[in-house]
Amino acid sequence: MPRPERCRVVITGLGPICAFGVGIQPLWSALLEGRSAIAPVRRWDASGFASNAAAELLLDTFDVKSAVPKSYRKATKVMARDIEFAVGAAQEAVRDAGIVTRATEGATPTIPPDRFGCQIGAGLIAADVDELTAALWTSRGADGNFDIAHWGETGMTNLTPLWLLKYLPNMLSCHVTIIHDCQGPSNTITCAEASAGLSCGESMRVIQRGDADVCLSGGAECRVHPMSMLRQGFARRLAATPTGVDPATITRPFAPDATGGLLGDGGGIVVLENGATAAARGAVALAEIAGFGASQCFCPDTIGVEVNETGEEIAMAIAAALDDAGITADAIDAIVPFGSGIPHVDQPEAAALVSVFGSRARSIPLIQVMPFVGNCGAGAGALAIIVGAQAIRTQTLPARINTTGCTALDANVTPARAATLKNVLVVITSLGGQNAAIVLRAVA
Amino acid sequence: MQNEPRIVITGMGWITPLGHDLASVWSNLMAGASGMAPIDRFDARTFPTSFAAQVRNFDVTRYVKDMAVHRTAGLNTCFALGAARQAWEQSGLSKSGAVNARRAGIYLGAGEGVLDTEHYFATNIAGWDEAAGMIDGRRWAEAALREMTALREIEQEPNMPVSHLAREFGLRGPAYNCLTACAASTQAIGEACTILKRGDADVMLSGGTHTMIHMLGVTGFNRLTALSTSKGDPTKASRPFDRDRDGFVMGEGSGMVVLETLDHASARGAKPLAEVVGYGSSADAFRITDIQPEGRGAAASMTMALRQAGIDPHSTRADGRAPIDYISAHGTGTKENDSIETKAVKRVFAHNAERIPMSSVKSMMGHLIAAAGAVELITCVMAIEEGMLPPTINYQTPDPSLDLDYVPNVARRAKVDVCLSNSFGFGGQNDTLVVSRWAS
Q1: What does pTM read for this prediction?
Q2: Which residues in chain A are closer than 8 Å to B144, comparing Cβ atoms?
Q3: Domains in chain A, please, with CATH?
Q4: Please, which pLDDT band fits residue A304 given cuts at 50, 70 and 90?
Q5: How much is the ipTM here?
Q6: Closest residue of B to A436, CA-based?
């Protein structure tokens, strides 16, 4: 069935947030230099875990109070760190796109609020352990254990009344829509690491079907958290960080000696815009989102459920994205893979790339992100898209670190270099089996 | 848009506090029954709210082929498996060869799984450094690795119900989960329809599942003072649109629908139960803790859905009826929601508002949070099929400012062809679906 003509959707602003800080410059410099942010965890003593290094975004690098209008500072009290990241990323994306929103007090907004959508992916936000335990501690019974009767009667009042609102995943989108007055369609996709990729795909569709002209889109998560570390360790996704080994060298996507991934803080938000309205306001399109595809594996790597080692469903998502972009596999110049360094996750992804690209898979340069900023969960896909767009915008392939000995893919260590990049593929998979693929294209 | 594929519902299923199949839940809704009772899942006797509408006597093994692959599933996932199995069987897609797995996707609005409270709390207490007023990281990690278990933790991720359904039904097409609080499953169904319209799949399994009837869930809503703290008979506590309403009552469960393009359903000879004709989504962009007082976002969502359905809210049909026969209200029973929703409906339908019956099944089965929208959409389809409107029970004292027809207390016979279902999420995300009697 021939598909109807659809409007072009372009990226006009990049708002990454990660251990390097907010904005594309600190991240891109590190990627060009081959400098990883992964280091021993500092926020708390994580040495009780076999894996205790990560790419942390600490308060001295990013304080949300600097990222909200003065009138909104009070609301930062009900933001989990995940929400703070989304708020910071949105502020940066809007600034980068040259859009004026309600966040600039007294200014006339660039985008009519009812044409301004917001799709921000989120993770399972874990409660602040110190805050919760301080309250639980007051309800210990005579035996030292938690006493639920006491909790119901008085203990729970030690939690701030708005406590729950810090941890609802939709609060990333909600705070951002309030700050920037986005009254159009708004969603919160929660598919682990695939969240941001699926969100950008959905924003693209919202704009194509005419329900909005501009969307703030992406995802964010604070994964450097004791509960995330515990859960990801339980899921066999983390590499051990032995003493004497520089943790920055541990994440080795697609390497035969890979041992696992490490976590990171952050994600990002991009401004996605109808190509026509972007042109009308004189905005610079950094890249086009030309194609999108999604699929589901049967719970790969969920413990107790079989892994589909063929990568067939990942290949389906890629094929759908290529078809949507109106190109064949030959037209892809570089790939930002999920590339987590987790052997049982890298394996089906590599198989998918080989099945789609055949013998060319060996010579299409991969762009690594996770060895630099860790696995940022619901934010991971946003960073991948942002790095892909920046590579297109600057016609540069960033450096690769750590991986050696990979023969099936072009994944081994290499310095940054100039390259002609027209179409870049971004592949995103998740713990749970949801996959997204996106084709980014240089703007003619 | 011209020549857009039409989207039909070919299967429905639910697991709710009022029963586990279409017929028995419907007869309970018609009888004005209530699912509320004291909470027995944990000891809530001292909590400000100690009652809820729990799903009772539910046995997931009745719905699942091989429980081994789902043995670690959380309660939310089990509800989803039960509801989805009913919908899948009703659609006829369970027959071999009826569906191409690559063209069949999933879009859920599922909530997170239940915390392993006992072991999580034990870990936190064991890891607490009282002098420092914070966790001792090493002790906490040691306790966590000892107390907590891998699969209980992983199954809490909100995408796990999607993953389990994909595994159970072998679906490999586009797969999503959204969690826009109380609007989630309405949004999921709306977005699933757009995926079908675009041609990215032929079949989508969609809906929601959720339970927050656990210690921290009740704590969280109690602290927000969103729940009814009524001290009397729990079955009288949920009082949407009544003057003396004092908050919502928590429910739990799942609603699932099978959505298909009309072409796909026709080609296999499936009988559509109803057609989804409109979907709208908006954000209040107002405040985290309050709804925009004029119902701006709710009205925008309804207007968008009606526009897509080609329905002029101010019009009158040829037989003199209002353009919509029934509104399934978000109707939580909080002071704020019910009054602003009433305002928004008036804003959209103007002079027609008072002619359109609008009720809240939350008066009977409580608020299923992320799953509420899907269950309420199914209620609309049942209303079309049965020619009956579910009541708002516990409507005793009219609120002078709420003057619409809330179908008080008693189910009503009516000619029902088109219904609108509203869901508004905490934080300001609003979604609306319009569903219509199937007519070729």
Answers
A1: 0.98
A2: 226, 230
A3: 9-126+167-441 (3.40.47.10), 129-164 (no CATH)
A4: very low
A5: 0.97
A6: B174
